[in-house]
Amino acid sequence: MSTHDSLTTLAELLYRALKAQSHYAQDHPQAVQSVEAALGLLRELLARQSPLVLAAREGRLWAGDRPLEGAPNASTGLARELEARGLAAVVFHTGLDTDELQLLLFALQLRPERFLEMGGATALLPEGSNLRLMDVPPEDEEEMPANSSRDARRFAYSGGVAQAVVNAIRDMQPDREVKVA
Questions:
Q1: Which helix (H) or strand (E) holds 61?
Q2: What's the CA angle centered on 85, arms 15 and 118, to 5 degrees?
């Protein structure tokens, strides 16, 4: 199975885990099994490539510059949940554990207003986590680079996949290896 196909399967497993967590208690066998399945595939993918970035844009999930094809309910459902909370991307790193994945699912189950009240992505994840939630950059004129065209500024702060990958790599710890697919 290609990496792109595996990412589509990952989107399905993450969405199943999210739905199982919302319907069952966290320790219910159905919820535990769905989280373990998603975590297993994530670890397999991270062994091949870390970091792994899933970005939400235009109501779809993207990996690199390609939208995830297949599993339309899962990919649009996850994209919708991320975008509703002002998140541009989820960045997974090698070493991801069950607790970190549970935090992601918890964040996506919160009402968007409550997510923001709790401090958003930075408040929910501990320092040094193997999971990052990337906020959509604000469209504040003062933060935009001077001397650039309006279109370039709009792209730079659109929360698109390219910017999400650049931000993830820039913010990585220096001892982590970067592999670009």
A1: strand 60-63
A2: 110
